[in-house]
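re: the backbone from monday

yeah here it is again, tokenized this time
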């Protein structure tokens, strides 16, 4: 239950990303600066936290064991996650970006066969591929149905072009984020905590952000003061607080594929928080009756998802060792 609560809190802080990215885009800000500045601002904040806990040197040693895997999975988990997210904000409203992003609930479960688990057999210990958690997939589709209903209720105001430019990059991100996160959990095997892993992935993905920001600096110049300020807010609220909360929650559930799917499902709360944020900060945002029904389905789906994962079954006992 604690992991689920942390996941919901993370979804609240993650919602800041969708609302502020849309505000920056509406003001003419570059999606490249929005993506790059978040991680450039995250770096010193996380350095202070990790150094204060005297864990920076152990983190560097851990990264030095598999530097190329750190670089690759950080590029997947951070780069192919956030760059498309910011790109989509330039073409779609925040609610549509947040809604499409919730496909990560299904994507996370579909990725399960890419990982192995250690089980005890009559012949000893064996590595077998994990299976898609079908018991929880049903609840995930309840959540997704609510999201589809919310999007359908407002999609008439969005052009096909903007919907595609908002949808396709986010679909890439929905697979990249859980894949990168899980592969990093598998790589670290509990040797680093959420703060250290977030800092390590930020450092490992730094070449991408430096390349993008250098390109943008040469072609369009420096970002505006407002975009810089808003990006710093995103860095603190979403990049540090939300990411650490979510990584902590997934670390707590990493030994059980059903519980991990439930934690990832809590991110559907981003849609609720994003819609509320848009109503408060962006004029013209409205929610129809169908949209409200969709919101109810999301909340009900989250509750049912959590309830199903809390029911222990014999097959759950196999979810041990090595993470997912």
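seq for it, each position gets an aa:
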């Amino acid at each position: 239950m604690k992991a689920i609560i942390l996941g919901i809190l993370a979804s609240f802080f993650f919602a800041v990303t969708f609302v502020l990215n849309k505000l920056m885009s509406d003001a003419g800000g570059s999606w490249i600066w929005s993506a790059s500045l978040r991680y450039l601002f995250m770096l010193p904040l996380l350095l202070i936290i990790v150094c204060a806990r005297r864990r920076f040197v152990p983190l560097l040693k851990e990264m030095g064991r598999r530097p190329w895997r750190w670089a690759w999975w950080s590029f997947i988990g951070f780069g192919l996650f956030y760059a498309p997210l910011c790109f989509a904000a330039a073409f779609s409203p925040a609610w549509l970006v947040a809604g499409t992003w919730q496909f990560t609930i299904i994507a996370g479960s579909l990725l399960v066969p890419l990982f192995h688990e250690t089980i005890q057999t009559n012949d000893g210990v064996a590595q077998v591929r994990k299976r898609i958690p079908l018991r929880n997939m049903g609840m995930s589709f309840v959540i997704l149905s609510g999201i589809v209903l919310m999007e359908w209720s407002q999609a008439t105001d969005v052009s096909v072009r903007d919907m595609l430019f908002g949808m396709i990059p986010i679909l890439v991100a929905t697979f990249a984020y859980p894949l990168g996160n899980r592969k990093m959990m598998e790589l670290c095997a509990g040797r680093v905590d959420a703060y250290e892993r977030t800092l390590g992935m930020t450092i490992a993905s730094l070449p991408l952000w430096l390349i993008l920001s250098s390109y943008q600096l040469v072609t369009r110049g420096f970002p505006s003061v407002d975009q810089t300020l808003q990006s710093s807010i995103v860095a603190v609220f979403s990049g540090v607080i939300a990411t650490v909360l979510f990584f902590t929650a997934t670390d707590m559930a990493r030994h059980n594929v059903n519980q991990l799917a439930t934690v990832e499902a809590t991110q559907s709360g981003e849609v609720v928080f994003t819609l509320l944020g848009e109503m408060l900060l962006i004029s013209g945002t409205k929610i129809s009756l169908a949209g409200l029904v969709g919101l109810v389905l999301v909340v009900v789906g989250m509750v049912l998802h959590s309830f199903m994962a809390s029911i222990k079954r014999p097959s759950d006992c196999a979810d041990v060792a090595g993470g997912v």
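Residues 160-188 form the longest helix (29 residues). Residues 313-324 have pLDDT under 50 and may be disordered.
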